[in-house]
Write a structure and sequence with these properties.
heterodimer; A: alpha/beta; 2 domains; six-stranded mixed beta sheet; 10 helices; 16% strand; B: alpha+beta; eight-stranded mixed beta sheet; four-stranded antiparallel beta sheet; 31% helix
Chain lengths: 316, 345
């Protein structure tokens, strides 16, 4: 995956200098281990700051909403599915985009890496092939990437971009036989009281910073329901009822649209597994409507279409 | 001033005893990170922690706090009278607070307690609090306290400072409040020359471990409107997702928003932490928002910390160098880099 950095720099430089795009969106190396920095490049000379590694776990489609002009952007499997969703939802047009597709082998969970070294202070994390060399004061450990993948990446079945203008390499093999919804089934089997307890504990640390919402490309409403004040749908304090309302409604607004890119979970400053809310709806979308978001640009999403001959009896 | 030596067991026992008459907060491991918790019999304090994920500012300044209560009930003799909500000003101690976070309270104090204004709730709770600091033997890679007037063993804002010298704490009283706190503890013995020497060595080593810094020397000389209109803000703000991580984790961010929550005819007026990152932050009643773009909001955060505060109080920047925003910004916007841009502009 590391060899993609050079290619991205070349392509971005070429697209910008040839005037094929006005801006190019990608990642630059961050100032903290495992934290890359999304950047917009306007000048081909700056293309050399672009990187690609296993810490590109945000969703760059987030920055495309209502952007003007011609835009170059890197996209792995999930990011490309969000681009498709963005196009279907009229947030950007296909013609505006030059998509540099990246076959992806999964992103690293920065918390898992820290956990693997006993939460000691990290000074540097170097990626070498399938391993990470983790360095800190007085220690150096080697970790296998597959042992510390983000949880969404570990069960991902769409690693290759579904839409692109150029691919950086041959497609990677898609994972088969992974059990995507094991955790959801465990929750489904709980009694209502247990479920309520589970979700109450899950959000107990929430500080209502809205990082999960804001990291998500699906959340582009000009005014979010939690920010409305006339009428006010939800309280602004950290009252648990209001916090729960936020999380549940956020998830429902993503129903049939979520690609499980994991950005929401990655960015939470207090480590809440927020995907537990969206994943149930992904499972329902798949089981009830055979629908996975963002796979086809010529199909309307499950929840914004109706067919009189739908195979589901409960709709007819 | 008193300097005493406590074994860690003794220290824990002493705190438990003190905890019977005042509220004692200690760092406790909660999953992947550490948080201040009210000390109870079963609490296991984490004295080896680096820093808490959330700053301890909420101990003095809760994220949500009831200000007033009111009733609009007809027939209620006290209807339409806004009454102060009950508040808790029990004496309390934050034990194990890091020097940067104690310094931060002094930075915030200039806003909440000055000749012009005194925020009654912040001030009373602050005055009820004893700050017992724990010097940093192992500062984080992102710490830059030494370039903002602090240090891993900085004493600013502390009543007591602890040095972790292996199996024991060396506790030094720094104020009358701190002396009282130490006097209330059981156990302990006078520290000898050896321990004092060890403590001095620790301070030296810790200082050397801090390699990060922030440039601020030119900020006060800059013309505010020129910085405001500087061309770099669009690029600084591009990646920002406008979440509240930086401001909510920050020990020096003090902004709040006042909300009325009404149920039937009863109402509560609540103040909640606010964040300049959020679209509601300066939304006017008219619907107009002078900062309706992300770039304007990002600029506000940095201009407030690195220029307006500098100009208004003439006492450094509104930052104690804890590095939380640097470590936990989901998109890696780094205040040290922005300060560099502003300082050199």
């Amino acid at each position: 995956m590391l060899e993609y950095t050079k290619k991205i720099q070349e392509i971005a430089g070429r697209l910008l200098s040839e005037g094929k795009v006005e801006v190019f969106i990608g990642y630059a190396k961050g100032t903290v281990p495992m934290m890359n920095h999304p950047v917009v490049i306007r000048d081909s000379a700056k293309a050399e700051t672009l990187v690609w590694d296993s810490h590109c776990g945000l969703n760059l489609c987030n920055y495309l909403t209502k952007m003007k002009g011609k835009i170059g952007i890197v996209a792995n499997g999930c990011n490309s599915r969000n681009i498709v969703t963005h196009i279907l939802e009229n947030q950007i047009t296909r013609e505006q985009l030059y998509i540099v597709g990246i076959p992806c082998e999964g992103m690293v969970d920065h918390r898992a890496v820290k956990r693997a070294v006993g939460n000691r202070e990290l000074e540097e994390v170097i990626e070498e092939g399938d391993t990470l060399v983790v360095k800190g004061r007085g220690f150096r450990e080697i970790i296998k990437k597959t042992d510390v993948l983000q949880r969404n990446c570990a069960v991902c079945t769409h690693r290759n971009p579904v839409i692109y203008d150029e691919m950086l390499g041959p497609p990677v093999e898609e994972q088969t036989g992974v059990d995507q919804f094991k955790d959801v089934r465990m929750i489904e089997e709980m009694t209502p009281e247990k479920k309520w307890g589970f979700f109450t504990r899950t959000i107990a640390k929430c500080i209502r910073c809205y990082a999960c919402r804001n990291a998500c490309p699906l959340c582009y409403c000009p005014t979010c329901f939690v920010d409305e004040s006339r009428p006010q749908w939800v309280g602004k304090s950290n009252d648990p009822t209001d916090t729960m309302t936020f999380h549940i409604l956020r998830a429902y607004h993503c129903a049939g649209r979520c690609t499980d890119c994991g950005a929401c979970e990655r960015v939470c400053p207090v480590g809440i597994p927020v995907r537990q809310f969206t994943k149930k709806l992904n499972k329902d979308a798949l089981e009830f409507f055979s629908w996975e978001a963002g796979l086809a640009i010529d199909q309307r999403p499950a929840l914004d279409t109706y067919k009189p001959n739908d195979y589901n009896e409960f709709i007819r | 001033m008193t300097t005493m030596l406590f074994s860690k067991d003794e220290w824990g026992q002493g705190l438990l005893a003190v905890g019977k008459s005042i509220k004692v907060f200690v760092p406790v491991k909660e999953g992947d990170f550490t948080a201040f918790q009210l000390l109870a019999e079963e609490t296991v304090p984490d004295w080896a922690y680096q820093n808490t994920r959330m700053s301890p500012k909420s101990i003095v300044y809760p994220q949500s706090e009831g200000m007033f209560k009111y009733s609009l009930e007809e027939g209620d003799p006290e209807a339409n009278i806004v009454k102060e909500a009950p508040k808790d000003y029990t004496l309390q101690a934050v034990v194990g607070i890091r020097p940067c976070d104690a310094h931060a309270f002094q930075i915030v104090k200039r806003n909440f307690d000055n000749e012009e204004f005194r925020d009654p709730w912040w001030v009373q709770r602050y005055e009820a609090t004893t700050f017992v600091g724990l010097g940093c033997n192992e500062p984080c890679a992102t710490c830059f306290c030494t370039s903002v007037g602090g240090g891993p063993f900085g004493k600013n804002g502390l009543d007591v400072i602890l040095h972790d010298v292996g199996s024991r704490f060396l506790a030094e009283g720094l104020t009358a409040k701190g002396e009282d706190f130490l006097a209330g503890l059981t156990g302990g013995q006078a520290a000898g020359e050896k321990e004092l020497g060890e403590a001095k060595d620790l301070e030296g080593w810790a200082g050397e471990k801090i390699t990060a810094g922030i440039s601020t020397d030119q900020l006060k000389n800059k013309v505010v409107t020129q910085l405001f209109n500087a061309p770099f803000w669009e690029d600084v703000a591009f990646s920002c997702i406008n979440c509240g991580t930086c401001t909510y984790l920050c020990p020096t961010c003090w902004c709040f928003d006042i909300q009325d929550e009404v149920f039937g005819k009863k109402g509560d007026r609540i103040r909640n932490w606010d964040s300049c990152m959020m679209p509601l932050f300066t939304l006017h009643g008219s619907g107009h928002n002078p900062r309706d773009k992300k770039t304007q909001r990002v600029r506000q955060r940095f201009m407030h910390k690195l220029k307006y505060y500098v100009d208004k109080y003439g006492n450094g920047i509104q930052c104690s160098g804890c590095g939380r925003c640097v470590r936990f910004c989901p998109v890696n916007i780094d205040i040290r880099q922005v300060a560099e841009l502003m300082n050199n502009y």
